[in-house]
Specification:
The complex is a heterodimer of chains A (303) and B (483). With 303 residues, chain A is of the alpha+beta class. Chain A is 25% helix and 25% strand. Classes of the chains: A alpha+beta (303), B alpha+beta (483).
């Protein structure tokens, strides 16, 4: 078992959250206004921090939700592992999970939401709830973990999580050029990222040295050259379908294979299906009927 | 078996026949009796009218009719579930999706397919094989299980170690809620705003709605594959090798383990070339690009040899297919030994495999039973098969007692109740061993957000009394369901 739950720290966090007034959990404030802003008078709390248990041989790690992702990444790097979370300076593990935004590597590494195995959160009544389980495979009951990722802390405040870790690849390489992104995706076996701005393409390869070398040669034969990294990403996250309908609106970068694009200007996003909206409202009513958890923030408003 | 309400004169049957042609609404006792079971050991399920819709609109019609008559609805795929998840309780309308079995569209560039829920898992991979793609989740029942059922249980399979179970391969699902509304959860392109309703729905065991279409992610076939058959003189050495592979930072496509008795049974059954003198074999498959595949296969072989293992590498696709045929024939091979088996499904941390397997052997011996182990060792997903002859008086009590002890042993080391079969009826009453009352209450809240009246597949997953809502009378498991 990868360490015990941070009993005292979690209990203390739960007590701090309490059961009465409006409360918001603060992480690194890197995405503090995603999905709306908490009213100024909202009381702020902070989750436990630190690595609570790590079994490199099981490739799972238990951390407090306020643990900085850079600290987690550094701890894992020492044993050649990583988690599939964006390593944003200043951001916390709980914060990136609550916001639920993949980084540019979702194509090859998978979605951030699949990194979470178990979560201990504080519910609206101030009680501690465990969702999921500590093993890499688990279908015991309903999948609350997937619901918590991207929920902006509106259903429960993350206190501690268990994450699945992965081996760090031996090497990696960015390339860029003017080739066709669809052709690149067809020809390369498992790129971790393909980005396209309508004119240029960036591709990220990672894995065994000889494989990355061979795939890089293939990418070069299609018109790409080694480069230092991805392009700067415009500010607005939009679904690719919206962007394709209005390509003249400005510069953009499409994250191939993920349905996501980054646009320089806001694009009108179609209203969600009313039934989807109703499900959101019912979930909020079930999990936080008094609306005291992270008030002012709405996952449906987070693009 | 008794049927209290459903007769050919039942007004519900008449209503359903206004939605579906009469030949696709079955009310005869024989057909309802067949639908009273799934592939689990549970008997005594009580089906009401059995409907075979062919469209989303027909599914909505079935739900509307059931609602008007105050009857529950049980979605059912191919009926291959092992936890009793589709065993109907108290004569619900059973909505069977097997006739909704078409591949609706394939987008090769986007590596996406829309399928109907009744499509057979392996049929999808066969259909997209010409494009160099496959559907990664491959349950042992993949020749007969349906994709809708895979969504219901969040199914796994040997090749889910590296790429994840069903949830990771479902981009969106069209679902008919118990209100009768049809809604798409998630987005086929992969990015949907808001909460991950798709993720919350996958694995909900038919208790949040009925899946009517699924957008699945397709996986490219790897350019290189190496399959190794590792033979060991002890189960301990085999289990420690599995742990060592993971500890070494290798995540193969699959790591499967089989112990002595099942090796013998499989070899006798299909002649897969497994070494019958081994105490355990481990099948390791690594795939990807050639450099990494060779390096990882070499390292796996080294780790096995360091622990006394004998290493055989499949020389070609034919030998590889034979090894997998052996693995996937395991359950059928058991009939040579005992007429019945109870397949368990728990998960333990991968570093505790050897310890828990030894406990399983001790538990089985204490209960005077036989066990065979064939399981997904790479993700710690144990599958002890308890063998028995149900005609033997008192044997079921011993089987259930041993099963309970295995579950407790798995949980004691930080494991979980189920890795891929789900909870269903089978493990419903074990849920409090893993979850607190507050944890279960939260799961009940999730369910009620989707299905406020608890009309979809009642009586499964959540133990009676776990929910704050009024406990529906249907949540009683009738006598005789536990065979």
């Amino acid at each position: 078992m990868i360490g015990d739950k941070a009993g005292a720290a979690l209990e203390s966090f739960a007590a701090e959250v309490g059961s009465d007034d409006a409360v918001a959990v603060v992480g690194g404030r890197t995405h503090w206004e995603v999905g709306g802003s908490c009213p100024e008078e909202t009381r702020l709390v902070r989750a436990p921090t630190g690595v609570r248990g790590f079994d490199p041989a099981d490739m799972t790690i238990r951390v407090g939700a306020a643990t900085p992702v850079t600290e987690l990444d550094a701890a894992l790097a020492e044993v050649g592992q990583r988690v599939n979370l964006p390593v944003l300076p200043g951001a916390t593990v709980g914060g990136v999970l609550a916001v639920g935004r993949d980084d540019v590597h979702a194509l090859g590494r998978g979605r951030l939401r699949d990194a979470l195995l178990e979560a201990v959160y504080v519910a609206d009544d101030g009680g501690l709830v465990t969702a999921g389980g500590p093993t890499v495979k688990n279908v015991s009951g309903f999948d609350l973990c997937r619901l918590l990722v991207g929920s902006l802390g509106t259903l429960g405040l993350l206190g501690e999580v268990i994450l699945r870790t992965w081996p760090r690849p031996a090497t990696q390489q960015w390339l860029a050029g003017s080739c066709d992104p669809a052709e690149l995706r067809r020809r390369l076996f498992w790129p971790s990222s393909i980005l396209w701005n309508g004119q240029s393409v960036w591709v990220h390869l990672e894995g065994h040295e000889s494989d990355v070398e061979a795939e890089a040669e293939l990418a070069q034969s299609l018109g790409c050259e080694p480069t230092d990294g991805p392009p700067p990403l415009p500010d607005y996250r939009v679904p690719t379908g919206v962007l394709e309908a209005d390509e003249s609106s400005g510069s953009y970068v499409i994250q191939i294979g993920t349905g996501l694009a980054y646009a320089a200007a806001p694009c009108p996003i179609p209203d969600p299906d009313p039934t989807v909206v109703a499900l959101h409202r019912r979930l909020k009513a079930e999990f936080d009927p008094r609306g005291r958890l992270n008030p002012g923030r709405d996952p449906l408003a987070a693009s | 078996m008794r049927f209290r309400r459903t007769t050919k004169a039942d007004p519900l049957v008449d209503d359903l026949r206004r939605v579906l042609p009469a030949d696709r609404v079955r009310a005869a006792s024989l057909e309802r009796s067949i639908m009273g079971r799934d592939a689990s050991i549970f008997e005594g399920g009580q089906a009401g009218p059995v409907c075979f819709p062919i469209s989303t609109e027909e599914v909505q019609g079935c739900v509307d009719a059931a609602r008007r008559h105050g009857r529950a609805v049980v979605p059912r795929g191919a009926g291959t579930g092992l936890a009793g998840g589709s065993v109907p309780l108290d004569e619900p309308v059973v909505v069977v999706t097997t006739k909704m079995n078409r591949l609706l569209s394939v987008d090769v560039d986007q590596r996406l397919a829309w399928v109907q829920p009744g499509m057979i898992n392996l049929d999808l991979s066969r259909a997209i094989a010409p494009h160099g793609l496959h559907f990664a989740p491959d349950p042992s029942s993949q020749q007969v299980c349906s994709l809708g059922g895979n969504v219901g249980t969040n199914a796994g399979g040997p090749h889910c170690l590296a790429h994840g179970v069903t949830s990771a391969h479902v981009q969106a699902a069209e679902v008919v809620l118990m209100s009768g509304e049809a809604v798409v959860l998630g987005d086929p392109d992969g990015w949907a705003p808001g909460l991950d309703l798709r993720g919350a729905y996958v694995g909900s065991e038919g208790m949040m709605g009925i899946t009517t279409a699924i957008a699945v992610r397709l996986t490219p076939n790897p350019p290189a594959v190496q399959t190794l058959l590792l033979a060991f003189d002890s189960v301990d050495a085999a289990a420690h090798t599995v742990s060592a592979v993971i500890a070494d930072g290798i995540v193969p496509a699959a790591i499967e383990m089989m112990d002595k008795n099942i090796i013998w049974a499989v070899e006798n059954f299909v002649g897969a070339g497994f070494p019958t003198d081994a105490a355990a074999v481990v099948i390791v498959e690594v795939d990807g690009l050639p450099g990494g595949v060779t390096a990882e296969a070499d390292r796996v072989a080294e780790l096995a040899e360091e622990r006394g293992g004998r290493v055989r590498r499949a020389a070609d696709d034919q030998e590889r297919a034979l090894i997998w045929k052996g693995r996937k024939s395991a359950f059928g091979a058991i009939a040579q030994i005992k007429p019945n088996y109870y397949l368990h499904d728990t998960v333990v941390p991968r570093t505790r495999l050897a310890e828990v397997m030894n406990q399983v052997y001790e538990i089985v011996e204490e209960h005077d039973l036989q066990v065979m182990n064939v399981f997904h060792a790479g993700d710690g997903n144990l599958h002890p098969l308890l063998l028995y002859d149900r005609r033997e008086p008192g044997v079921m009590e011993r089987v259930h007692a041993a099963g309970s002890a295995i579950i407790e042993a798995s949980l004691a080391v930080g494991g979980v109740l189920s890795g891929e079969h789900g909870i269903g009826i089978e493990k419903r009453d074990f849920m409090p061993l893993m979850f607190s009352e507050a944890d279960l209450d939260a799961q009940g809240r999730l369910r009620r957000a989707f299905d406020p009246d608890e009309m979809a597949n009642p009586g499964k997953v959540l133990p009676t009394g776990a929910s704050c809502a009024d406990v529906n009378a249907l949540t009683k498991v009738p006598e005789g369901v536990w065979g």
